[in-house]
Amino acid sequence: DIQMTQSPSTLSASVGDRVTITCRASQSIVGWLAWYQQKPGKAPKLLIYKASSLEGGVPSRFSGSGSGTEFTLTISSLQPDDFASYYCQEYNSYSFGQGTKLEIK
Amino acid sequence: EVHLVESGGGLVEPGGSLRLSCAASGFTFSSAWMTWVRQAPGKGLEWVGRMKSKADGGSTDYAAPVKGRFIISRDDSKNTLYLEMNSLKTEDTAVYYCTTTHYDFWSGQRWIDYWGQGTLVTVSS
């Protein structure tokens, strides 16, 4: 099975900051990676698919990049609504990263 | 609009069984490959399993921790997906989400797109 390692597990930042979350795969997944946002008590929401394609309705401050084994999710200018948990997932075998909780500094 | 509503969660004793349902609307359910994902309290997301559409063979795949204990099935006439859980363990305690997958024609890949609101399963004596 493919293992996904996400870092950091917790990230403290302020409104307006640029933040980056990293996801590493144990073997090449080409670009078959998605990113999800989850708020407390809610279901996850798809943000990005194919490593860098923005899902419809997702603000353009979110972007994804990477290929092979290393991927990043970047939020260019944090908004109050962005404080949540984020998960990467490869969709060969559907393994998730451990998640990153984005907290207000 | 895609709508997924899970039901059937509750409290069950270790070793017991439970069947979850996921009522789907807003898309062609019979053509969809569906998955179940779970989340233990305060923990991350864990893929449980997947069922292909009957047109694509209707086969199922499961994560190692649930293989041999959980069964995914579907009733396309009722637009409903099921998760039958047997020999439940305390570590199966989680919110269980039903999801759709999006098919990308050009790559042949499928990723999870829409999620239900989840149903809580608690395994405890």
Number of strands of chain A: 10
Question: Which structural class do the helices and strands of chain A define?
Answer: mainly beta
**SSE sequence of chain B, one letter per element:** EEEEEEEEEEE
**Uncertain residue segments of chain A:** none
Tell me the number of strands of chain B. 11
Report the helical percentage of chain B: under 10%
Helix count, DSSP H or I runs of 4 or more residues of chain A? 0
Q: Taking Cα atoms only, what radius of gyration of chain B do you get, to the nearest Å?
A: 14 Å
Count of helical segments of chain B? 0
The dominant shape of chain A is globular
Terminus-to-terminus distance of chain A: 36 Å
Into which percentage range does the β-strand content of chain B fall? over 45%
Q: Taking all residues together, what is the mean pLDDT of chain A?
A: 96
Largest contact between chains: A-B, 23 and 21 residues
Can you tell me about this structure?
The complex is a heterodimer of chains A (105) and B (125). Helix content of chain A is 0%, strand content 49%. Chain A is globular, with a radius of gyration of 13 Å. Chain A has no helices and ten strands. With 105 residues, chain A is an all-beta fold. In chain A, the strands form two sheets. A six-stranded mixed β-sheet of chain A has the order 2-10-9-4-5-6, with no helix packed on it. Chain A has a four-stranded antiparallel β-sheet with strand order 1-3-8-7, with no helix packed on it. Chain B has 125 residues and is mainly beta. Chain B is built from no helices and eleven strands. In chain B, the strands form two sheets. In chain B, strands 2, 4, 5, 6, 9, 10 and 11 form a seven-stranded mixed β-sheet that branches. The N and C termini of chain B lie far apart (40 Å). The model of chain B has no long low-confidence stretch (mean pLDDT 97). Chains A and B meet through β4 and β5 of A and β5 and β10 of B.
